[in-house]
Amino acid sequence: xxxLNKTKTLMIDVARRLFARYGVQNTTMNDxxxxxxxxxxxxYTYFKSKNEIVQAIVEQELSFLHKELEVAKRLPMSPDExxxxxxxxxxxxxxxxxxxxxxxxxxxxxxxWQVERSRSEFDRKETLLIQEVxxxxxxxxxxxxxxxxTMAYLLQNAVKGMEVPYISGHIRLRTEHEYELLRESVVQxxxxxIRVKETK
Length: 200
Hints:
By secondary structure, the protein is mainly α. 76% of the residues lie in helices and 0% in strands.
């Protein structure tokens, strides 16, 4: 079984490099088998199509992201600091994963629904991580939340909504000042919301 898993991992890694360099559309199953020094039959033992390989790449990257978030959640921080840190770990890790995959960036933006289907289990796990942080804050008297699971779900979706503009560069950080401004805005949105000024 270990050898089988090793071969499958090799196929995924080879495909990732080829997709990143040439794009998914310009890479054939033969290209992947040849670059991995394996026969087509071996490749088709693990993957029936390129779409399955793309999905495997996305799932592998999401598994890495989840591990990064689990590490961030265990850091010795107060719940409010931990929540903001989780948001930044999420955004920075997703940005790094997408940008390092070269031509796969186009796949990320063009076929966002395939990515969405692949990440449903990750989203569920991340929502639970956020919920645990919220419940910790409630126990400490730091957060006033009527229903932590619902708030965790909303926050997880809000962070997802930041991904595309963050990755595409609309709010990518360029200076320390920009970082602080963005951080302050996220803190305000998460903890204080947008308040309407009372008119006299």
